[in-house]
Amino acid sequence: MDITFSSRFKPLDKVLVYDVFNNGLNGWMEIMPNFCEAPDFGESPSIVIKSQWPPVMLSTATFRYPGSHGSLSGQYSLKVSTRPIANPYAAPPAAGSLGQAIKRLSFHHLKRKYLQFEMWFAYTAEQDKVDGSGPQPGLHESSIRSFGFGWDLQERGNRYFSGVRYLNSVDGRLQKKWQFIYPSSKDDKDWAFDTEGDWCIKGVDPFWCAKRYPDGRHDGYLDVPNGQQSLCYNETDCKLNWQYARLLIDTEKREYIEMQCQDKTFDLGRHPIYCTAPYERIDGLMNPLMWVETDTNRRVFLYVDSVVISQE
Amino acid sequence: MKLFNASHVELKRDFTEDFQTNPHEGGWADECIFFIAVEDMEGKDAALKAAVEISHDGVHWVAEGTVSDTISSLGLHFVRVKHFGNWLRLNCSITGEQPVFRLNIQIALKG
Predict the structure, then answer these.
(1) Cα–Cα distance, A158 to B15 (Å, whole number)
(2) What is the least distance, in Å, from the CA of B8 to any CA of chain A?
(3) Does a structural domain hold residue A93?
(4) Residues 6 or more apart from A37 whose CB is under 8 A from it?
(5) Which residue range(s) make up the domain with A117?
(6) Min CA distance, A38 vs chain B (Å)?
(7) Which residue of A57, A79, A303 is the best one to mutate when testing the B interface, meaning the one whose CB has the most B CBs within 10 A?
(8) Taking CB atoms and an 8 Å cutoff, what residues of chain B touch A55?
(9) Residue in A57, A75, A127 closest to B24 by CB
(10) Could you give the ipTM of this predicted complex?
(11) How many residue pairs bridge chain A and chain B with CB atoms within 8 Å of each other?
(12) Would an 8 Å CB–CB cutoff place B7 in contact with chain A?
């Protein structure tokens, strides 16, 4: 174990993933629709248009004035981004207002209780135009609605999503608090914005499903207790500061244990993780996820330097 | 071993007027091919041209000089670019009478 790894991460016994994006994409790609329809691999019909979520890319974080920012571990990080489009917070997300990175692996041994996600990340908004108000109208911190990380899982006959997001901004008002995935919708129809017959199932894909409200509530997430945290967002959108985040869950009892960001650890109190009926063919699925959402008609970016997924 | 990666920059989307593809960073790569798959098309004399553009910041763009042949048939077409710095996109122009192009555009990078 090299000193950088042991200093930056605190993995569980079994390290399943140690991806440093300075070395390449390492199998992470963007989430896309399923193409299974006749006659020519059409997209399955849905109220949510996922074909506009942009591709992930290896980024040097190159900006107009400073040039290349590089990454924590070298030149390149994994960039998860959006298109320059957003709906108001309380509306269903606009096509392209989200970006999500996924890596697809699977549970491979029987003894599996704890699962942990660690990453070093930074986030910023595109420096496209000066259109803000106040003393720094060209600083766009409030354009970033949220970013998060977690998993899409199915094991031992339970399908479940677990993860946390940093809710940064709601319709331009800074929130700066952590939330964890847990659905509070009444049923599948409520989860799918009152749509009948969509494939959306309560608890699945909280990133683009579930109703949201102007005060920042979201039927796919609950607030982390005492989850307020002011992260480092520098004086201009072209300065990045690399930060650490971690989430620990129990896949045996299907409970949240704790999350950490920087020097603050948040007790998640063994809150249950919501499980749905298993899907066909995918038992054992383990898909780590990272995502970002824009709050306005401006691209926003989540840069990820490195990720460790571990288990014991 | 070289790195190679292909990503979609437009996915099964119908275009009826001029457009630019989403900005893509390819600074790690030595060569690039944009694959332009025309999956469906409509309109009399419908034609598409794709011009490569480069940028220093992903916001401001300038023509690189490479332009595709006129695309007016179904199937796979491509544009090749070798020297581009970091940011890449296509600036596409569409002409004809009520033209519709259903496009699937991939950027293939190697380096």
Answers:
(1) 41
(2) 6
(3) no
(4) A43, A44, A45
(5) 104-126+139-295
(6) 14
(7) A57
(8) 7-9, 22, 24
(9) A57
(10) 0.96
(11) 59
(12) yes
In chain A, the number of structural domains is 1
- Are A42 and B19 a contacting pair, CB within 8 Å? no
Residue B74, chain A, CB below 8 Å: the answer is no
Tokens of B37: 């798959």
| Residues B4-110, CATH architecture | Sandwich (2.60)
Does A86 fall in a domain? no
A242-290 tens-digit pLDDT: 999 999 999 999 999 999 999 999 999 999 999 999 999 999 999 999 9
- Cα separation, A227 vs A264, in Å, equals 9
DSSP-based helix, strand, coil % in chain A, nearest 5: 5, 45, 50
In a domain, A265, yes or no: yes
Task: Domain ranges for chain B, please list them.
Answer: 4-110
Q: Answer whether A60 sits within 8 Å of B59, measured CB to CB.
A: no
Mind listing the pLDDT tens digit for each residue in A34-86?
A: 888 898 888 887 888 888 999 999 999 999 999 999 999 999 999 999 999 99
Residue A210 lies in a domain: yes
